[in-house]
Amino acid sequence: MNKLFAIVYVSTMTHNMSIGEIEYLLERARERNKEHQVTGLLLCYKGTFMQYIEGPDADLNFIYDIIKADNNHHNIIQIVHTAISAREFSDWSMAYSVASKKQIDALTQQSWLESDERKSTGRALLSEFWKVNALGRSIR
Fold it and tell me: Are 13 and 72 in contact (CB under 8 A)?
């Protein structure tokens, strides 16, 4: 089995995207992600994206290159690109939820480079955010 890696980044929308535009973006991403064994979570708050993606390094880098070239966002800041021991979102080619400002701020201030990846505070918050906020406000 290929070693797994994760990338987390934040970016700014180039325009105020409608729900239809975001759904279309997610549909395309989910198809590509399945093909390349990439899973993850996309958070959105007032024009800001935060995304966690995971998968085999070559496939992950391929998907991330597509993400960086997408003209729906700019000001991309990569927070982490690191090896992981197991997937956090193995069942989701791309989960999605709308985040509150408090949640985005908390996620962006976490230490992503802890030595024990399974106990990473930032990744645990991503996972908890999804569990708490997915019901009623998510597209899975």
Answer: yes
β-pair type (73-84, 4-13): antiparallel
Reported as type and span, the H/E element at residue 89 is: none
Tokens of 31: 């198809």
- Span 25-62, pLDDT tens digits: 889 999 999 999 999 888 887 788 888 899 999 999 99
Cross-strand pairs, 41: 52, 95
Question: What is the pTM (predicted TM-score) of this model?
Answer: 0.74
Kindly provide the b/e burial profile for residues 62-90, where b requires at least 16 CB atoms within 10 angstroms of the residue's own CB.
bbbeebeeeeebeeeeebbbbebeebbbe
- Beta-carbon count within 10 A of 112 CB: 18
CA–CA distance, 95 with 138 (Å, rounded to integer):
8
pLDDT for position 120: 56
Q: Give the end-to-end CA distance of the chain in Å, rounded to a whole number.
A: 27
pLDDT of residue 128: 59
